[in-house]
TrEMBL record:
<dbReference type="GO" id="GO:0000796">
    <property type="term" value="C:condensin complex"/>
</dbReference>
<protein>
    <submittedName>
        <fullName>Cnd1 domain-containing protein</fullName>
    </submittedName>
</protein>
<keyword id="KW-0226">DNA condensation</keyword>
<dbReference type="GO" id="GO:0010032">
    <property type="term" value="P:meiotic chromosome condensation"/>
</dbReference>
<feature type="domain" description="Condensin complex subunit 1 C-terminal">
    <location>
        <begin position="294"/>
        <end position="463"/>
    </location>
</feature>
<dbReference type="GO" id="GO:0042393">
    <property type="term" value="F:histone binding"/>
</dbReference>
<keyword id="KW-0132">Cell division</keyword>
<dbReference type="GO" id="GO:0007076">
    <property type="term" value="P:mitotic chromosome condensation"/>
</dbReference>
<keyword id="KW-0131">Cell cycle</keyword>
<dbReference type="InterPro" id="IPR011989">
    <property type="entry name" value="ARM-like"/>
</dbReference>
<dbReference type="InterPro" id="IPR026971">
    <property type="entry name" value="CND1/NCAPD3"/>
</dbReference>
<keyword id="KW-0498">Mitosis</keyword>
<keyword id="KW-0539">Nucleus</keyword>
<dbReference type="GO" id="GO:0000779">
    <property type="term" value="C:condensed chromosome, centromeric region"/>
</dbReference>
<dbReference type="InterPro" id="IPR016024">
    <property type="entry name" value="ARM-type_fold"/>
</dbReference>
<dbReference type="GO" id="GO:0005634">
    <property type="term" value="C:nucleus"/>
</dbReference>
<dbReference type="InterPro" id="IPR032682">
    <property type="entry name" value="Cnd1_C"/>
</dbReference>
Length: 614
């Protein structure tokens, strides 16, 4: 490796060593020597390389001499307490530090006690450093309202990257809490909450300072008026009383700091339910109001972990969580897809309602990377776990994306005491003729991933929940969205993806049959039985569908809706072509009906042929 002049190649080799150290013995001597030789700036800026070295050292620490181990402990402790380690590298450094002290992955009680002592020392220094970067002592009794402490951090350059240092301090505190949650206390709570609510506190402090200034001016003119005005003032927030001698340095509390604060608060929530009850609503509000994709991305990751720990607490905010699938940031959308997929796969969330509709609609995302990842999550991850996920919810999607309220949703709203019938949560309207292509993309994707048995069941559900509800007038057919839904149903049932195929294939077990029949005889029996079963199934299928179609035909002809009637006839033509024998066998039972339907089909064929000629 010393002969390699290319630094990139050396990094790749160290990366390979770090991966191999998981299952194989990799001598840590070279890695430890190189680590001790690297400067602070190298550790600070080169995340990957430092991570490879600390990983190898941690996994082979028991092979190091006591002198080398002590040197590494001192060096890493120096890096940690100076808060110069890159945020992404803090976890790897701290784990290596704990292993070297024999306080992690060890049964050594002395090492554990020493590690706990070091944690206490580092935590105290981190908390003190955090306060120094967050607060500054007032020089005057009245703070100038135009002072930089009230300026937007985005418009002010931080002194020597104080915001980055503050974020690293928070990362260090988070690591310590991971190893020992006894360091969680009220003082830490208040500082973290202050960071997350810095904008709100900033406004409150401005109002408080304005009131103080006005009070001082009035007192110089009229003492009595000053007393009267002060008695009518609103009482400042209780937390502000602690800052009478100090002000908050808002230029240091940037989005980088808040994003790191989210992770620390999430770790505390996992071990403190009372804190979680207060913090989760704040996180959800931040998902709605924040425009910073880093903060939102971290909240999504934290919410994923909290959902496993406090499923009932997160449940009432699923609409907000799911809305991140339509966020402006591609990173946020992909992170949401990833976290929702894991929660759905592991059973913490149920594939239904708003989450389902939003998840499916990501297949229409403008960014191909998001579309492809959404399809991968649906087909490769979720479908094998729940084979009926598309079949069960297909009709609900027909209603939802057409903007039609399903009758069962109305009953559900009534049971909850919600009388706003006809209104339901539509995050992204796909209703109307202009969105027909987009709707069909979603429907055909779902149909493509169904078995023939599921397609038969979906056809029956469409007949019952759409066709029957229309001719029984449970749905308002005057609503153009209901008409569009009916047209969608006909087109999908005629489509290649929605077509039901009655192919009776031999099962794999049949090849292992031990009966002493000849191969030819068994094949003849299988073909004969298959054809008989196929014919019987087709007849049952067509008979069941025609039962609803004939009633719907009368309803459509009575209303003289030409558009829906035309698509209806096209579906009849499709059935007559696909299942010719069964179709005419059923309608021939009524001669008058047979003549009427046959004439309709002939007229449709003539019209379609004329259109093709034109």
């Amino acid at each position: 490796m010393k002969c390699l002049k290319d630094g990139v190649s050396r990094k790749y080799i160290w990366m390979l060593y770090s991966i191999l150290s998981v299952s194989l013995h990799v001598d840590p001597k070279n890695a430890s020597g190189l680590f001790l030789a690297t400067g602070r700036e190298y550790v600070k800026n080169d995340f990957n390389f430092s991570n490879y070295l600390t990983t190898i050292i941690a996994r082979g620490a028991r092979y190091l001499s006591s002198e080398k181990r002590e040197s590494l402990i001192q060096q890493i402790e120096k890096y940690i307490t100076s808060f110069k380690i890159d945020i992404k590298n803090i976890s790897s450094f701290y784990y290596c530090y704990g292993v070297l002290l024999k306080g992690v992955d060890s049964e050594d009680e002395t090492g554990k006690a020493l590690f706990a002592q070091k944690n206490k020392k580092i935590f105290s220094k981190a908390l003190e450093s955090m306060k120094l970067l967050m607060f500054e002592e007032n020089d005057e009794n009245i703070v100038n309202l135009d002072s930089s402490i009230f300026e937007d951090p985005s418009n002010t350059t931080q002194k020597d990257g104080d915001d980055v240092k503050l974020a690293r301090i928070l990362g260090t505190i988070g690591e310590i809490i991971d190893y020992d949650n006894s360091f969680i206390h009220k003082d830490l709570f208040e500082n973290l909450q202050l960071i997350m609510s810095s904008k709100l506190c900033k406004k409150a402090l401005r109002v408080h300072q304005e009131q103080t200034l006005n009070s001082t001016i009035l007192s110089s003119n009229n003492f009595q008026n000053s007393q009267l005005s002060s008695s009518r003032k609103s009482v400042p927030l209780s937390i502000m009383k602690n800052f009478m001698s100090h002000h908050i340095i808002y230029t240091n509390i940037t989005s980088i700091v808040q994003a790191q604060c989210v992770l620390v608060m999430g770790k505390i929530c996992l071990v403190n339910e009372m804190f979680a009850r207060d913090v989760i609503p704040v996180f959800m509000k931040e998902l709605v109001t924040s425009r910073n994709h880093i903060i939102k991305n971290n909240i999504i990751v934290v919410t994923h972990d909290l959902c496993k720990r406090y499923t009932s607490l997160i449940g009432s905010y699923l609409d907000i969580f799911g809305a991140c699938l339509n966020d402006d940031s591609v990173a946020v959308r992909i992170a949401t897809l990833h976290c929702l997929t894991k929660l759905l796969k592991e059973g913490y969330l149920i594939w239904q309602g708003d989450i389902m509709f939003r998840f499916v609609s990501t297949l229409l995302d403008q960014v191909s990377r998001v579309r492809e990842y959404a399809e991968f999550c649906l087909v490769e991850t979720l479908l094998p776990v729940s084979l009926d996920m598309f079949y069960v919810n297909f009709v609900d999607c027909l209603f939802y994306f057409n903007g039609v309220e399903h009758p069962s949703w109305i009953y559900y709203n009534q049971a909850k005491g919600n009388n706003n019938l006809g209104k339901f949560n539509k995050h992204k309207s796909l209703q109307g003729i202009n969105n027909e292509k987009d709707r069909h993309k979603l429907y055909r994707f779902m149909l493509k991933n169904m078995t023939n048995t599921q397609k038969v069941a979906v056809t029956q559900k469409i007949c019952i929940e759409i066709f029957e509800n229309i001719y029984k007038e449970s749905l308002d057919f005057c609503d153009i969205n209901v008409q569009n839904m009916l047209v969608d149903s006909f087109k999908l049932l005629c489509s290649e993806d929605g077509k039901v195929r009655f192919n009776m294939e031999k099962s794999g077990d049949e090849e292992d049959d031990v009966y002493e029949e000849s191969e030819v005889r068994r094949e003849v029996i299988a073909i004969t039985a298959g054809e008989a079963s196929k014919a019987a199934l087709k007849e049952l299928y067509v008979k069941e569908v025609m039962k609803y179609l004939l009633k719907l035909r009368h309803f459509l002809y009575t209303l003289k809706n030409s558009r829906c009637a035309f698509e209806f006839l096209k579906y009849l033509l499709f059935l007559s072509n696909e299942h010719n024998h069964e179709f005419y066998k059923i309608i021939n039972e009524n001669k008058q009906l047979s003549t009427s339907v046959s004439n309709d089909i002939i007229q449709l064929k003539n019209k379609l042929s004329q259109n093709n000629i034109v």
